[in-house]
Write a structure and sequence with these properties.
This protein is an alpha/beta fold. It contains 15 helices and 14 strands. Helix 1 crosses helix 3 and helix 8 runs parallel beside helix 11. It binds nicotinamide-adenine-dinucleotide.
């Protein structure tokens, strides 16, 4: 099939490269000329394992990029994969979706034959039929359901494993208007190679249900982590190891063993944004979701718990504290929503001299938070040297292997927020929930 994808970030580029690899002809449309040039030069504009290779293989052949929306007229189906950031109040900012939809509608104005527009961006229920469809209709003088059909196909990939997740999804969701058979047939044909090879569940549902499934998925996972963190905090009060408890409860198939690692909480570009967005959307309808609000509250509490554990052992004023890890999870340099920020801010507020180390995320963190008075170093050993305490924030593998490096500390107080440090002997060690 001929496919166009609007937006070439993590989602749009991964989808484009993978669809090209499955034999479709794909064009990426992005307003950023550098991104377009990068794809056409055979290089991925985002860092994801395996993506460079796929783009190098298909660029100039089944994959190309352009800033010109006219390219969509040569395609059968267009995915919208632009960003949906948070506003101050947590609600999603749909202005990028709206702008891209206007450009798309205008470009489709002069297209012969039917076209399918698929919303892949994460949007709250009602966005596709109340914003995308009318905007398309108006911008291109198009009749929805005749000239243009709309559908949703939320994306569940995770950063760091985007290609692998796209190729082997646990489910693909097709949301359509009133079971629109033409839209469904188009989506089935497009996804046939993935469905044939990976055998995911195929969920055919309504537009709003499709939009909501994405939020429910992320809200559930975030809440599961917050629940085990809440339980973990109770465990700590009773001197109980929350990891032993989690291992046991995870044996119950109704609970399952994944997402039961208690600690500093969740971050990244999706969980905080999506949980905030669905809470704000619920409130806009007059419903305040207490459990989802509590999930956020527990997540905000965890860095404070870590700081309290550290402060109980070390007077933080004027002393050197090592912070190990700045990225929101291992394997990425992404610092959006990272729990390291409240830890660093809390330490600075208590007068500590913060010495931070991360294997890959230091530059991003420094650039994002230029006003923070932090000393950045290029190894865990350098961070620990002469430190009076240490906060372990990200579960990078290399922190598990730390050993003699702790001996260089002025005082070996280690508060581990991720259950990653293996050495315990000779340390004043505190686990966050164990
Ligand atoms: P991103 O910010 O990395 O990429 C968005 C791209 O859209 C950018 O390259 C930008 O230049 C481009 N763009 C902006 N305005 C445009 C316009 N008018 N026309 C064409 N291109 C335009 O975003 P992302 O991380 O790929 O996320 C996209 C969507 O997918 C979001 O709704 C996000 O919530 C959702 N999502 C993201 C992930 C993830 O892990 N990143 C996972 C699942 C779902």
């Amino acid at each position: 099939m001929d496919v166009s994808i609007i937006g070439s970030g993590y989602v749009g580029t991964t989808a484009a490269a993978c669809f090209a690899d499955y034999g479709h002809d794909v064009v990426n449309v992005d307003i950023d000329e550098d991104i377009v040039a990068s794809i056409n030069a055979g290089e991925s504009p985002v860092h994801e394992p395996g993506l460079d290779e796929l783009i190098a293989e298909h660029a100039g052949d089944r994959l190309r990029a352009t800033t010109d929306y006219a390219a969509v007229r040569e395609t059968d189906v267009t995915f919208l994969a632009v960003g949906t950031p948070s506003r101050e109040d947590g609600s999603i900012d749909t202005s990028i979706v709206e702008a891209a939809t206007e450009s798309l509608g205008a470009a489709l104005d002069s297209k012969e034959g039917k076209h399918l527009v698929v919303v892949k961006s994460t949007v709250v229920p009602g966005t596709t039929d109340e914003l995308v469809a009318p905007t398309l209709a108006e911008a291109g003088d198009l009749t929805i359901g005749e000239d243009v059909h709309v559908a949703v196909n939320p994306e569940f990939l995770q950063m760091g494993t985007a290609v692998e997740n796209f190729r082997n999804p646990h489910k693909v969701v097709f949301g359509t208007q009133n079971g629109d058979e033409w839209a469904l047939d188009t989506l089935r044909e497009l996804f046939e190679p993935i469905v044939d090879s990976a055998d995911p569940a195929v969920v055919e549902t309504g537009l709003r249900e499709g939009e909501m499934i994405k939020y429910a998925n992320n809200a559930y996972l975030a809440s599961k982590v917050s629940l085990i963190n809440d339980i973990g905090n109770v465990c700590k009060e009773f001197d109980v190891d929350a990891y032993e408890v989690a291992d046991a409860i995870g044996l119950d198939p109704r609970i399952g063993s994944r997402f039961l690692r208690s600690g500093l909480g969740w971050g990244g570009s999706c969980f905080p944004k999506d949980v905030a967005a669905i809470i704000a959307a619920a409130k806009s309808q007059g419903y305040e979701p207490p459990l989802l609000e509590a999930a956020v509250e527990v997540n905000d509490l965890q860095p404070r718990r870590l700081l309290e554990l550290l402060a109980a052992r070390v007077d933080l004023e004027g002393v050197r504290i090592a912070v190990l890890g700045l990225s929101f999870k291992p394997g990425t340099d992404d610092v959006r929503g990272t729990r390291s920020l409240p830890v660093v801010e809390g330490l600075l507020a208590r007068g500590a001299h913060v010495v931070a180390y991360d294997p890959v995320a230091t530059e991003k963190f420094r650039e994002t938070h230029p006003s923070l008075d932090v000393e950045y170093v290029d190894s865990a050993a350098a961070a620990l040297e002469d430190a009076d305490g240490c906060a372990v924030v990200t579960d990078w593998d290399e922190f598990a292997a730390l050993d003699a490096e702790f001996d260089a500390m002025a005082r070996p107080v280690v508060v581990d927020g991720r259950h990653v440090v293996e050495r315990r002997e000779g340390l004043e060690y505190e686990g966050l929930t164990w």
